[in-house]
């Protein structure tokens, strides 16, 4: 039997060339057959035939007419039909679940949110209901759904399927969320740690665009981090990178050595660097006002409540310490503060930077995310869009 490579079939050549044409059109807002031929090296006749085929498959539509600059008919231009399919991104937060539906250009055309408690007891059914609601609101055909990505607060197995460890909702642990949704919906479903998706969002649409190394620290009901290394999101060997909540931090300023080993008493960051941890410190410093969330502590601070001021200062010191640990290990170009606490980062900035400067020799800039509460959904949509290429190739090949 000969080892000589077999010649490519006509179908393989057609699909490969059609994909080259589609890629060029997707990369441009609109383009012409002549421009496609020049950029791909294909003949104009071949491009004519491939463009017609892609139009029949609803992947290309006519754009505006382009002037020739002289005598003759204006050239027809084409654009990618992003409406041929859609993706859905869902951010299942500890307290609030947010979701968005986007066409294949990433433009979000429908969104929704609900208390996570509303779907916690039947996570699969709750997510299915969210998906149906988004599709109805966007008036899209369910069979044009390309892929779904779901962010969950906790550790997900490297295959992007099973919730290995949940931050708050322990009954979810061991649930093959991806497989169950894939079985019921018949589309590609990926499950990811929510903090990892914020790294995708900041890298593609946020503060980390064009950067190669970044640390994204998300603080709300919980705390976690997304990492960007060498220009790509980094998930770790077991997809568990960024679990900042596991890190022990001093309960006080470090001067108390009352621990059994003569060391300052510590507690995990998941208890200290969260909204609940901030409120607990407010109570510890004698605060009496009713507090429904971290936002109330910052409001009390603006009203000159001394307990709120002390609690926020302590929070900022701990945050600076926690960031310093991450910076000392990975040396990022930037640190982005995400989650609900990002809206109040201006109040924390001075103390955070001061503490960070005590830990590392060359501290990076620390900024608040501009897409904070939307980062989970944006990252999930971007991750789902990564699956679109395979879906488009299947359409071309059919």
Question: Helix/strand-derived class?
Answer: alpha/beta
The assigned CATH architecture of the largest domain is 2-Layer Sandwich
Total helices: the number is: 13
Largest sheet: 5 strands, mixed
Output mean pLDDT. 92
* Shape summary: elongated
Radius of gyration: 25 Å
CATH topology label of the largest domain: Nucleotidyltransferase, domain 5
Helix content: 40-55%
Strand percent estimate: 15-25%
How many independent structural domains? Answer: 3
CATH superfamily annotation of the largest domain: ATPase, nucleotide binding domain
Say what oligomer this is. Answer: single chain
The order of strands across the largest sheet is 6-5-4-7-10
**Span between N and C termini?**
31 Å
State the total count of DSSP E strands: 17
SSE topology string: HEHHEEEEEHEEEHEHEEEEEHHHHEHEHH
Question: Which residues sit in consecutive blocks of at least 5 with pLDDT less than 50?
Answer: none
Structural overview:
With 398 residues, this protein is of the alpha/beta class. The protein folds into three domains: 10-80, Arc Repressor Mutant, subunit A (Orthogonal Bundle), CATH 1.10.10.10; 85-201 and 377-397, Nucleotidyltransferase, domain 5 (2-Layer Sandwich); 209-370, ATPase, nucleotide binding domain (Nucleotidyltransferase, domain 5, 2-Layer Sandwich), CATH 3.30.420. 40% of the residues lie in helices and 23% in strands. It is built from 13 helices and 17 strands. The strands form five sheets. It has a five-stranded mixed sheet, sandwiched between helices. A five-stranded mixed sheet has the order 13-12-11-16-17, sandwiched between helices. Strands 1-3-2 form a three-stranded antiparallel sheet. A hairpin with an 8-residue loop joins strand 2 (60-66) and strand 3 (75-80). Helix 2 (33-40) packs across helix 3, helix 6 (194-205) packs across helix 12 and helix 8 (275-284) packs across helix 10 (306-330). The protein is elongated.
């Amino acid at each position: 039997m000969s080892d000589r490579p077999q010649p490519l079939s006509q179908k393989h050549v057609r699909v490969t060339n059609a994909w080259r044409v589609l890629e060029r059109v997707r990369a441009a807002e609109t383009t012409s057959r002549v421009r496609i031929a020049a950029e791909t090296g294909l003949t104009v006749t071949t491009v004519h035939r491939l463009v017609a085929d892609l139009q029949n498959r609803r992947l290309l539509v006519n754009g505006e007419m382009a002037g020739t600059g002289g005598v003759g008919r204006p050239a027809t231009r084409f654009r990618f039909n992003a409406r041929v399919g859609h993706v859905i991104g869902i951010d299942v937060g500890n307290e609030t679940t947010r979701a968005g539906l986007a066409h294949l250009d990433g433009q979000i055309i429908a969104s929704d949110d609900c208390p996570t408690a509303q779907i916690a007891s039947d996570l699969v059914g709750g997510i299915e209901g969210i998906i149906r609601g988004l599709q109805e609101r966007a008036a899209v055909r369910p069979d044009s759904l390309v892929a779904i990505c779901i962010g969950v607060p906790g550790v997900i197995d490297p295959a992007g399927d099973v919730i290995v460890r949940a931050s708050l909702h322990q009954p979810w642990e061991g649930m093959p969320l991806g497989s169950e949704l894939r079985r019921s919906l018949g589309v590609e479903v990926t499950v990811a740690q929510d903090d990892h998706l914020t790294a995708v969002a900041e890298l593609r649409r946020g503060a980390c665009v064009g950067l190669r190394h970044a640390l994204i620290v998300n603080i709300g009901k919980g705390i976690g981090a997304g990492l960007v290394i060498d220009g790509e999101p980094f998930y770790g060997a077991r997809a568990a990178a960024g679990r900042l909540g596991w890190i022990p931090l001093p309960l006080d300023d470090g001067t108390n050595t009352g621990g059994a080993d003569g060391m300052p008493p510590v507690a995990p960051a998941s208890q200290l660097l969260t909204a609940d941890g901030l409120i607990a410190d407010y109570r510890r410093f004698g605060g009496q006002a009713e507090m429904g969330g971290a936002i109330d502590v910052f409001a009390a601070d603006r009203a000159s409540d001394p307990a709120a001021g002390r609690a926020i200062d302590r929070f900022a010191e701990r945050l600076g310490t926690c960031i310093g640990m991450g910076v000392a290990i990975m040396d990022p170009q930037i640190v982005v503060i995400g989650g609900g606490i990002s809206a109040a980062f201006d109040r924390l900035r001075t103390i955070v930077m001061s503490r960070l400067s005590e830990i590392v020799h060359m501290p990076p800039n620390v900024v608040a995310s501009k897409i904070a509460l939307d980062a989970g959904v944006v990252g999930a949509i971007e991750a789902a869009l990564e699956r679109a290429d395979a879906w488009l190739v299947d359409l071309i090949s059919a």
